[in-house]
């Protein structure tokens, strides 16, 4: 199972790097394993050139299980796996569109009446909106994880992604393919929002 997770993470890295969404070793990716374990990228590795040696295992609290140093943002993955039992993959790109749009936005971005919203689970019509919350960047990852987790716990609508201001975004899915579809859809929608605002 770890080998398959590595392969999925390596391929996602190549694809996202080719799209310019994880420059300069930024971003991190993970896949849920059995028994509460998580496969996640090792801290500081170049996401376009990942190998098996750049993927490691952590427990559900983000503690290393193999002596390597996990991504600095590991807690932003582990809380999502605890919160959503149905998800099995998480991707965190640092794309230009997400970075710029988050700086131009307040507490959320409302993606309203787009056909591509149907890329997300449970959405079957363009006649809806998807709210993507925006959180201020914070180098205290545990504090940021608690903030996002309590938002998701309290809010009465589905959350499929969130933005971190001037930083990037997180999205997740039941499979890596679902998660990649969400990344592509969000990138398209973020680009539309920027164009509509004249950027
Ligand atoms: Zn990041």
What does this structure look like?
- The chain has 199 residues and is an alpha+beta fold.
- The chain has a single domain, classed as 3-Layer(aba) Sandwich (L-fuculose-1-phosphate Aldolase).
- The protein has five helices and eight strands, in the order αβββαβαββαββα.
- The protein is globular.
- Zinc ion binds at residues 26, 73, 92, 94, 167-168.
- Zinc ion is lined by residues 26, 73, 92, 94, 167-168.
Topology of this structure?
Layout: H1 2-18, E1 28-32, E2 38-41, E3 55-58, H2 75-83, E4 89-92, H3 96-104, E5 108-112, E6 129-135, H4 141-154, E7 161-164, E8 168-173, H5 176-196
Parallel strand pairs: 6-7
Antiparallel strand pairs: 1-2, 1-4, 2-3, 4-8, 5-6, 7-8
In short:
With 199 residues, this protein is an alpha+beta fold. It contains five helices and eight strands.
At the fourth level of CATH, the homologous superfamily is: Class II aldolase/adducin N-terminal domain
SSE string, helices as H and strands as E: HEEEHEHEEHEEH
Kindly state the number of beta strands. Answer: 8
Structural class: alpha+beta
The overall pLDDT average reads: 96
Any idea what the CATH architecture is? 3-Layer(aba) Sandwich
Number of domains: 1
Tally of helical runs: 5
* CATH class group: Alpha Beta
Spatial arrangement of strands, main beta sheet: 3-2-1-4-8-7-6-5
**Unreliable segments (pLDDT under 50, ≥5 consecutive)?**
none
Q: What kind of sheet is the major sheet?
A: 8 strands, mixed
| Rounded Rg | 16 Å
Shape from CA axes?
A: globular
Strand content: 15-25%
